[in-house]
């Protein structure tokens, strides 16, 4: 299944044409987005490097009281480079080399902010429930080799880089976390955000390695907008998305690792719905490819033991608060997706739809407070007339 369809958009373009194609895309993706005229050199680098390169422009209305706030943000999806049996340092270095090439192409496309996929420096080995060698990929968020590596690239390219890693918290007894490090365009670490919701479904038994975040929903003020990072499984939780909006986020990145048999029908809905409900831009990022591990593992679902847990289907996309979205990147190959955004669109959509004005936080705060109590009773009205 995973290696059959390049993308849903590819199927549509091959089967429909003319007004019918335009109308289907309008219904599925909102307003038609202008493609970015990306540099010839960047396209040549993508072709040489065998990764997809795409770019789209989200516009806002011209205002008389505010200048446009135009930002170029990008996401990278990629496969691991070496087999999972290779030495840890070699695996990480190979991925560094691959992603550095793609970041250089992003810089050529004048990208200001870029986010990498969940646990980007390693295979997504948490399905195995084995501690070695996978825990060796963990490193300090503030002072680890991957952070130092990206600090140089961030300052070189004047680019904010969001780096989701397996963090080793040496200050707290070597505890592990699923963490995103936010590195400024000047090369210093602004801060970090951790995964708020941990899956325990199918092969995703990640609490073997780390638990839920203790950092809340931080939003990071950068030169290119206010950034939140909703890591992977948190995209299933509407309240999680909402909290980043309450804290003022304008760009919320969702670095993920998810496979087709589990979540693909949800993929195109959740980040897009969050953009609409919270009046900010969202970036859905999924890794790509099938990762095979040396030892078999089971899923406690009656299936035979296996060495992989399916195809990571890529399909990374960007969604806007006005319900428009880009096409997804390929389900099959590495890719770099660039989006030019006018952040003024966030307020313009809030003014038009009034969703924040009608949010009724006090109503839901009361309901949630009652629901969190051990003696909670659902507000159900019964028919006793029978």
The proportion of residues forming helix, as a percent range, comes to: 25-40%
Quaternary status of these chains?
A: single chain
CATH topology: Nitrilase/N-carbamoyl-D-aminoacid amidohydrolase
CATH superfamily: Carbon-nitrogen hydrolase
Q: Largest sheet at a glance? A: 8 strands, mixed
Secondary structure tally: strands = 17
Using the alpha-carbon principal axes, give the shape: globular
- Elements, N to C (H/E): HHEHEEHEHEEEEEEEHEHEEEEEHH
Organism: Amphibalanus amphitrite (Striped barnacle)
Family: Belongs to the carbon-nitrogen hydrolase superfamily. BUP family.
Catalytic activity: 3-(carbamoylamino)propanoate + H2O + 2 H(+) = beta-alanine + NH4(+) + CO2; 3-(carbamoylamino)-2-methylpropanoate + H2O + 2 H(+) = (R)-3-amino-2-methylpropanoate + NH4(+) + CO2
Domain CN hydrolase: 71-343
Could you please describe the fold and organization of this structure?
- Residues 71-343 form the CN hydrolase domain.
- Pathway: Amino-acid biosynthesis; beta-alanine biosynthesis.
- Pfam families: CN_hydrolase (PF00795).
- With 386 residues, the chain is an alpha/beta fold.
- It has a single domain, classed as Nitrilase/N-carbamoyl-D-aminoacid amidohydrolase.
- The chain has helices spanning 8-15, 18-29, 40-49, 88-108, 145-157, 238-246, 260-278, 344-353, 361-371, and strands at 34-35, 52-58, 70-77, 113-115, 160-169, 175-183, 189-194, 200-201, 204-205, 220-222, 225-229, 251-256, 281-286, 288-290, 311-313, 317-319, 335-342.
């Amino acid at each position: 299944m995973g290696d059959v369809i390049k993308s849903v958009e590819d199927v549509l373009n091959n089967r429909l044409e003319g007004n019918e194609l335009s109308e289907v895309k309008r219904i599925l993706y909102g307003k038609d987005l202008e493609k970015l005229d990306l540099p010839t050199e960047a396209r040549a680098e993508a072709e040489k490097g065998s990764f997809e390169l795409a770019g789209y422009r989200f516009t806002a209305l011209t205002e008389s009281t505010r200048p446009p706030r135009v930002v170029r943000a990008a996401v990278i999806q990629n496969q691991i480079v070496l087999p999972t049996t290779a030495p840890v340092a070699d695996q990480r270095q190979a991925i560094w080399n691959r992603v550095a090439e793609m970041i250089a192409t992003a810089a050529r496309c004048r990208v200001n902010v870029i986010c990498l996929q969940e646990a980007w420096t390693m295979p997504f080995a948490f399905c195995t429930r084995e501690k070695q060698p996978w825990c060796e990929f963990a490193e300090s968020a503030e002072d680890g080799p991957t952070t130092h590596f990206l600090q140089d690239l961030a300052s070189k390219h004047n680019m904010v880089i969001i780096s989701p890693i397996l963090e080793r918290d040496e200050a707290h007894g070597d505890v592990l976390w699923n963490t995103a490090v936010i590195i400024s365009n000047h090369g210093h670490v602004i801060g970090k955000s951790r995964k708020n919701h941990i899956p325990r479904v199918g092969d995703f038994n990640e609490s073997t390695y780390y638990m839920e975040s203790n950092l809340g929903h931080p939003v990071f003020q950068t030169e290119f907008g206010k950034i939140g990072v909703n890591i992977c499984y948190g995209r299933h939780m509407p309240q999680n998305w909402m909290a980043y909006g309450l804290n003022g986020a304008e760009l919320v990145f969702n670095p993920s690792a998810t496979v087709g048999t589990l979540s693909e029908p949800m993929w195109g809905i959740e980040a897009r719905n969050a953009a609409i409900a919270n009046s900010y831009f969202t970036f859905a990022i999924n890794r790509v490819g099938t990762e095979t591990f040396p030892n078999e593992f089971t899923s406690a679902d009656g299936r035979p033991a296996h060495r992989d847990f399916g195809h990571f289907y890529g399909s990374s996309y960007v969604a806007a608060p006005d319900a428009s979205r880009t096409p997804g990147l390929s389900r099959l190959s590495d890719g770099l997706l660039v989006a030019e955004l006018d952040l003024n669109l966030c307020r313009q959509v809030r003014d038009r739809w009034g969703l924040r004005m009608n949010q009724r936080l006090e109503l839901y705060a009361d309901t949630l407070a009652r629901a969190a109590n051990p003696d909670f009773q659902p507000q159900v009205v019964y028919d006793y007339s029978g």
